[in-house]
Amino acid sequence: MFWTLPTIMTWTRIVAIPLIVGVFYLPVSESMRNLVATVLFIVFAATDWLDGFLARRLNQTSAFGAFLDPVADKFLVCASLLVLVHLNRADVFVALIIIGREIAISALREWMAQIGAGKSVAVHMIGKVKTVVQMVAIPFLLFNGLLFGAIDTGAWGQWLIWISAVLTVWSMIYYLQKAIPEIRARAK
Q: Which UniProt keywords apply (predicted)?
């Protein structure tokens, strides 16, 4: 199941990272770099939904795919956040909250799986909402201009990325609360 269509689509999110970063080094106008990076992010972020759909539809789900999918998502989001911090479009504090949470919850999930309590920290709706808000905020911040001549994506992106940071903390607290009883039970 290493080279199925869904897994290849997941790999594209990882391959997209140098493309999105590299766009900002092209000798073209800032608005063109912003547009290309935004389109790339949206296209590759859409593979997150599509690869899961195809894996289920084509009966090509696998343990490797289940492992790689969230890793690819986290790489894409974290790399994009670092680009946005570099461009002064996202606050370092927001990036630290989001990236720190991703590291902490990934480690927590790994540990909980090792002790046989992985289901207690399974993905919850708050984590999904957090991801959706991030996936809207990031392209808004990458575009950083007027959309349809009326929507200030930079301003909307700022609001959404901060909302995402709040949801990030909220989801982390949720997962920690779910894990604490299991941790206490095994600490005795």
A: Lipid biosynthesis, Lipid metabolism, Membrane, Phospholipid biosynthesis, Phospholipid metabolism, Transferase, Transmembrane, Transmembrane helix
pLDDT, tens only, 115-172: 777 777 777 788 889 999 999 999 999 999 989 889 999 999 999 999 999 999 999 9
Between the alpha carbon of residue 141 and those of residues 40, 60, 132, 162, 173, the distances in Å are: 13, 35, 14, 12, 27
| Contacts made by residues 96-101, CB under 8 angstroms, sequence distance 24+ | 97/165, 97/168, 97/169, 98/134, 98/164, 98/165, 98/168, 101/168, 101/169, 101/171, 101/172
Phi (first) and psi of residue 148, to 5 degrees: 55, 25
**Distance between CA atoms of residues 103 and 74, nearest Å:** 9
